Amino acid sequence: MFVNVKKKAMEATLWSVVRIGVDQVFSFIVFVVIARILGPVEVGLFAIGMIVAEIGRIFATSGFSDAVTKAGADDEEIVSRVAFWGNVGMAVVCAALITVLARPISWLMATDRLEGVLTALAWTLPISAGGAIHMARQLRRFGHKTLAIRSIVAGLIGSVVAVWAAYHNFGVYALVIQRFITELVTTLTAWLAFRWWPSVKFTRAQLIEVLPFSASMSASKLIGVINSRVQDMIIGIFVGAASVGFYRVARRTIDMLSIGTLTPISTVSVNLFVAIREDQAKVKQTFIRLLSVSGALSFPAFFGLAAIAKDLVTILYGERWLDVVPLMQALSLFCIPSLISLLFLPVLTSFGQSKKALRFTTIQFIVTVILALVAAPFGLWPIILSLLARGYVMIPYQIRLIEPHTKCSLAEVGLAILRPLAAASAMGLACYFLVEYGLAPIQNVIWRLIAAVSAGIIIYTTVLSLIDRQSIVWLIQLARSRAEKRS
């Protein structure tokens, strides 16, 4: 029985990774295609609208889905009924509230065009709520494969329609249509995957019993989303929708880089720390090793992106998006805070320190808002710099929170990433000057980019092998262990 459950869990994890990976890669490709058709203002308007809609979605639905996941086998049916109708009811209320607030928010952002976008996106919430509980119940039964395939199909249909609409001059509403289609197909496939008609037979007492847990889970997720997107809102209020568009394109590209280089390690780190948490010496050794390996993987990607940003933006988004280049180069300096955050939450999670995680997230949110509001009257660049400042200012506090578990001081963390950082910095500088001067005679931007990336790989590998062979050994060991587990 245990072996069967373990096998199902492993298969579920694999399909979850496949679903998330395919969704991220495919959505990024579609984002690139649509960004080439639309302008910065349209992308910015949609980004602002999605922030408001996502806040409403979390407030209305996520806590109820978590309640179904948490429920015991005997309580699943009644909790699912309560959660379904609670979901739908809250989603309708949130959609109506956003509709009412659409005009004031548009006035705050100084653009009338936002009102229609907000109103349209608001009514995707009830559609999403209609399938959330069916999905949660299917996932309880390890139905990740079915939902992964159907989620990919939903994304594909929505994306094709969005590209068609963008080419036919629907403007920002091409992205709105994509959201509607994706949510509708996802909900329909969730109902097909889990054939269940929710009864309305439940009591007020049962609803009240589910609400506290649902509210606490929603609050935690809400802080996380606002924390990651508050800059978009502040940029929209103080600078304008076009600047939000430029920032969102830069941030989306950086996020894809993080997913490609840091997420693979993040997916295994929680289970790894759980398995060794009783051995303090091993925890410290593993933490140091993961820092070095993660740095060796991610630092060259971030610094390499900064070096080739101009040619990459030209190829992906087109020349009208060249204002994104300096933003992308600045955000690439976020590589160290991203690396620390990669291991920070897994360590706290594996040691059961959820209160510490919530405290940090709350403090980080407050610091983010204060720094961004102070910087906002001075324009976009001060807001970007405030984001970077927040990332680095919070590092000592993060290390202090996890030090009782990792036994690693701030100095030891710095030493663990110093050599990969030095090798990546040398490579980044070399590639930058190579692109600007050495490869300038190459007129074809694609061939110039290929030459720069090839040179960067050779330079980085050479420098790293000279100053930090241990990280290379660890990278090889990590690759072998993952290959053995897959086989």
UniProtKB/TrEMBL annotation:
<feature type="transmembrane region" description="Helical">
    <location>
        <begin position="173"/>
        <end position="194"/>
    </location>
</feature>
<feature type="transmembrane region" description="Helical">
    <location>
        <begin position="117"/>
        <end position="135"/>
    </location>
</feature>
<feature type="transmembrane region" description="Helical">
    <location>
        <begin position="329"/>
        <end position="351"/>
    </location>
</feature>
<keyword id="KW-1133">Transmembrane helix</keyword>
<feature type="transmembrane region" description="Helical">
    <location>
        <begin position="147"/>
        <end position="167"/>
    </location>
</feature>
<comment type="similarity">
    <text>Belongs to the polysaccharide synthase family.</text>
</comment>
<keyword id="KW-0812">Transmembrane</keyword>
<feature type="transmembrane region" description="Helical">
    <location>
        <begin position="230"/>
        <end position="250"/>
    </location>
</feature>
<keyword id="KW-1003">Cell membrane</keyword>
<feature type="transmembrane region" description="Helical">
    <location>
        <begin position="256"/>
        <end position="276"/>
    </location>
</feature>
<keyword id="KW-0614">Plasmid</keyword>
<feature type="transmembrane region" description="Helical">
    <location>
        <begin position="43"/>
        <end position="61"/>
    </location>
</feature>
<dbReference type="Pfam" id="PF13440">
    <property type="entry name" value="Polysacc_synt_3"/>
</dbReference>
<dbReference type="InterPro" id="IPR050833">
    <property type="entry name" value="Poly_Biosynth_Transport"/>
</dbReference>
<feature type="transmembrane region" description="Helical">
    <location>
        <begin position="12"/>
        <end position="37"/>
    </location>
</feature>
<feature type="transmembrane region" description="Helical">
    <location>
        <begin position="447"/>
        <end position="467"/>
    </location>
</feature>
<feature type="transmembrane region" description="Helical">
    <location>
        <begin position="413"/>
        <end position="435"/>
    </location>
</feature>
<keyword id="KW-0472">Membrane</keyword>
<feature type="transmembrane region" description="Helical">
    <location>
        <begin position="82"/>
        <end position="105"/>
    </location>
</feature>
<feature type="transmembrane region" description="Helical">
    <location>
        <begin position="363"/>
        <end position="393"/>
    </location>
</feature>
<protein>
    <submittedName>
        <fullName>Polysaccharide biosynthesis protein</fullName>
    </submittedName>
</protein>
<feature type="transmembrane region" description="Helical">
    <location>
        <begin position="288"/>
        <end position="309"/>
    </location>
</feature>
